[in-house]
Amino acid sequence: xxxxxIRPDYEVVxxxxxxxxxxxxxxxxxxxxxxxxxxxxxxxxDEGKCVNCHRCVSLCPTHALKIVKTDDTYRENANWEAQAIxxxxxxxxxxxxxxxxxxxxxxxxxxxxxLLINASQVTNPPIDPLREPMETQLYxxxxxxxxxxxxxxxxxxxLPPQLKLSVPVLFSAMSYGSISYNAHESLxxxxxxxxxxxxxxxxxxxxxxxxxxxxxxxxxxxxxFGVHKEYLEAAAAIEIKMGQGAKPGIGGHLPGGKISKxxxxxxxxxxxxxxISPAPHHDIYSIEDLKQLVDSLKEATEYKKxxxxxxxxxxxxxxxxxxxxxxxADIIAIDGFRGxxxxxxxxxxxxxxxxxxxxxxxxxxxxxxxxIRDNVSIIVGGSVRSSADVVxxxxxxxxxxxxxxxxxxxxxxxxxxxxxxxxxNWGIATQRPDLVKRLNPDLGYKRLVNLVSxxxxxxxxxxxxMGINSLEALRGNRLMLRGIGLSDTELRLLxxxxxxESL
Length: 503
What we know:
Elements: E1 10-14, H1 24-28, E2 34-37, E3 42-45, H2 55-59, E4 65-69, H3 82-94, E5 99-100, E6 115-117, E7 138-140, E8 163-165, E9 169-171, H4 181-194, E10 198-199, E11 216-220, H5 229-234, E12 237-241, E13 253-254, H6 261-267, E14 275-276, H7 287-300, E15 307-312, H8 317-325, E16 331-335, E17 344-345, H9 346-351, H10 356-369, E18 377-381, H11 387-396, E19 400-403, H12 405-411, H13 433-436, H14 441-466, H15 471-474, E20 481-483, H16 488-494, E21 497-498
Parallel strand pairs: 9-19, 10-11, 11-12, 12-15, 15-16, 16-18, 18-19, 20-21
Antiparallel strand pairs: 1-4, 2-3, 5-17, 6-20, 7-8, 13-14
């Protein structure tokens, strides 16, 4: 049976007057788009395989290439756009579930872009961060310690275990398997130099990276991949993954093609076989069950490490967070529906979950109303794209932000959304040795350090402009935000006033 024809999304435009047939594009393309025709002496392109990763464009020595969106169109139909037609054709050809990578590209509203930061003027003057101290250091964990003094009159340290960060940014969960060894090394080294943390995701921790344990958060997911005593002891904190923003309500999925020998040993699973973690933890069906796992992990690590519980942003996230705050967890991580992923069913990624902004605002408000906000710290993620997004998140109630896609972009990712194929031309979302080596961790970690250092300076500038000199004064301070282009319902959910509205 002949497959239905699927029109390529992109066209490879080659300037033959510049092309010298050096075949660099052919050698560099893991998708086998480019080939050389010995009869004509010309380079050709199979455009149906192109994912627009721009590797060939970047490395062409004569700048003979460009990738353009095709102008070949179907009959115009506002209801049936080209992407919808493509997806029907693909499923009719294969009978399979559509898989996608990265965050959703759908044109849903981005609330960060409809929030403006308030600035100080005369009566509450701004602060110059170049000449006055700005406190960007923070601690994540419970703040419920009682003030007690010993017999000597000195204060006793009763503070539960904390994570100390130099800036309110962490590298979010990306497993070894979904991303490469070199990408993990870049994240680990950058976290160590910056004084922050990176998260292993649900793929275990490679033995080579145990030395970065003081800056590592390990994850315990439903599949329990790579979880053992040494793994837990090596980390600075442990995260229980209940849900993920890109695929709420379902488990993890790593295609077998990405499970190399090293990945299989780290995850403790067979090589070359799809790793699918269950949707639920089969020992957790209530907050009481969750509390048992929190207590077990604390007991196993002698109560020396904070426990994080990660959930996807969903409509009842505030109620769930209230339960987590009472479960004994130290930190709640909330992942919005725009969060990235190595592989997820397309329909789940694009249609399930809610944006991180209203979820965060409602969770912070609920915990404050119940008087338990200090029981937990809050980390948020799911398309945090800039330092301005970080500042807005903290003003909405977060303590810190996870960044994933932004970190991968700093490593060279071009958002071609083909991570699940394992053919990442930039050496990031792949396990192929010939591709992995394209990412140099000596350079990659420096780019990550540069990114977060730049964000830190910008955060200080924005705080100074608000007349605020510490993150603690910014946390949950929604008076420093104003909405624009938002409905009354959206303003109410976010807890902010409209631009121009005074107190």
